[in-house]
C-alpha cells in the first residue's frame, strides 16, 4: 500500500506542475517583461504595473491546460497505473502464501530406502521420483486396522485415478511391510490383490525395513508370541511424497478417504503452480 | 485359508460381531454367549481373539469415561493393589 501512496504523490505532483505551476511561471515571465520595458523607457502595450489578474489571453491558455481532456487522461492514466501496482502486489502475496505452504512440508521426514516389490523387483526411493507416493506402513497378519486403512487407500486411489488425465505426475499407492520376517513378496502380492491392482507392496530384510522406518519416524514392534503368531504394534499413518522425493504431508486415522484425496489434489496443484 | 485371504478375515469379523451383539444384548454376560464365543474363537486366530477382547474392553471403558460413569469398584481395587 505504501507503493500506491507513493505513486499517488508522484501523480499529484506531475499534475500540479503541468496544470497549475506552468501558467503561474508564465505569469511571472510577463511581469519580468513589463518591468524591463519600463526601465528601457519603451512604451509598453501591456500596462507597466503588475497585473493583478491574468489577462484574457493568459486566462485562455491556463484553461486549455486544465481542460476536461487532460484531466480525464491524467485520471485514467493514474487509475490504470494504480490497478497495475495492485495486481503486482496481489501476485506477490499469493506467491508468498504458496511458499509458506510448501515450507511446512520440509520436516525432517523421509529419506532413502532400498526394498523389493511384491513382484520381487529391487527398488530404491529414486525409482519413484516423478510420481506422487502415498505410503502406508502395515503388515499382512493385521486384525482390523490395516484392512481398514488399505480399503481407504484403495478408495483414495480410485478417486485420484478419475482425474488421471489432468495430473502432471502419476499417483502411486505404496504398502510397506513392518513384518518382513513373515511378509514375503508372494504373501504381500496375495494380500494386496484383494484391495487394489494398483498397489505396490514393499518388503525386504529386517535391516532394510528398519532403516526406512527410522527415516520415516515410523514406530513398529513385534508383540507377544502365541505359538508362531504375533501382532505387530505400529504407527498408523500414510505419508505423501512428491515427485522430487520430498515428504509433503501425513494423514492419520482421523482423515477419511475423501479428505485425503482432496488434500492430495491440492498438493498436486500447488506443486504444478510452483514448478511452472 | 489364512488371514491373508479376504474371505477368512470377513468370516472372522462376522463371528466377532455376532459375539459382540450377544454381549450387548446380555450386558456383557459371557455365560449367555458361550455358543457365539466358541464360533468366534474357531473363526479367528488366537492373537486376534485376544486383540479383539482388549479392543472391546477399551471401547467400553472409553464409552463409560465419556458418559462419566467409570466403575468405582474397579478403581477401588486398583487403589487397594500394592504398588509394584
From TrEMBL, chain A:
The chain crosses the membrane at residues 66-88. SUPFAM superfamilies: Thioredoxin-like. GO terms for biological process: intracellular copper ion homeostasis; mitochondrial respiratory chain complex IV assembly. Cu cation binds at residues 142, 146, 234. Disulfide bonds join 142-146. One of its GO terms (molecular function) is copper chaperone activity. It is found in: Mitochondrion inner membrane. Residues 104-269 form the Thioredoxin domain. Keywords: Chaperone, Copper, Disulfide bond, Membrane, Metal-binding, Mitochondrion, Mitochondrion inner membrane, Transmembrane, Transmembrane helix. Its main location: mitochondrion. The keyword Thylakoid does not apply. GO terms for cellular component: mitochondrial inner membrane. It comes from the Eukaryota. Gene3D superfamilies: Glutaredoxin. Pfam families: SCO1-SenC. Copper metallochaperone essential for the synthesis and maturation of cytochrome c oxidase subunit II (MT-CO2/COX2) by facilitating the incorporation of copper into the Cu(A) site of MT-CO2/COX2. Homodimer. Belongs to the SCO1/2 family. This is Thioredoxin domain-containing protein. It comes from Rotaria sordida.
UniProtKB/TrEMBL annotation, chain B:
It is found in: Mitochondrion. One of its GO terms (cellular component) is mitochondrion. InterPro entries: COA6, COX6B-like, CX6/COA6-like_sf. This is Cytochrome c oxidase assembly factor 6 homolog. It comes from Rotaria sordida. One of its GO terms (biological process) is mitochondrial ATP synthesis coupled electron transport. Keywords: Disulfide bond, Mitochondrion. Gene3D superfamilies: Cytochrome c oxidase, subunit VIb.
